[in-house]
DUF4918 family protein
Amino acid sequence: MSTFAERIISFNQNLEYTGSLPEGIRIMNPFQESPLALAASSEFYRKYYSDNQPRHLILGINPGRFGSGQTGISFTDPKRLQANCHIDYAGPMTHEPSSAYIYEMIAAFGGEEKFYQQFYIHSICPLGFTKTGENGKETNYNYYDNPALLKSVYSFIVANIRKQIDIGFEIDCCFCFGTGKNETFFRKLNDAHQFFKQIVALEHPRYIMQYKSKEKSFYIDKYLSAFSEF
């Protein structure tokens, strides 16, 4: 029987969006665009997921440019990949505040090996989006930011949540990063498709770092308390 690592890597390698997108929005697929991301993520998953222990899913929104857009690993920017996971990365050393928060939380949980033995983080939409502004600058874009985009990617989201569940993760509970639009959409989606018996929503790391950084320890404790229930 293959391990979680090999099934996750296969899932990543086969991720492809072939539908239409609203004008000015680009799909971001690090597994097809960046050999560095595919190599780094494959090494990461083989390091922490080469087994078949039961794990729970944690789903964020969609990949961002400076974290998994670079490394192929959710909420893991190149800085954390090297410093915390001890995996070499030859690309640019981008910094994502959400990644800094997640790895501080993981340290409080007991470290990378302990955390990743119990949890797997990905996204409701497993590929990310960018939008080009009038100044020509690309910015991150969320699947729910545009009704036309959400309509376009809805079936892609549904199919890939099913594929992630089929990797072998627990379905009694799924954790959701985001207590606003991401949670609202995910709960409606789960009601319609009955993916999970329960969804536990936690404030998104980006929200915490941007608006609640002085209360960071409170949110870390909140995460740990929620995780300890399962």
Summary: Residues 26-227 form a domain with the Uracil-DNA Glycosylase, subunit E fold (CATH 3.40.470.10). The chain has one domain: 26-227.
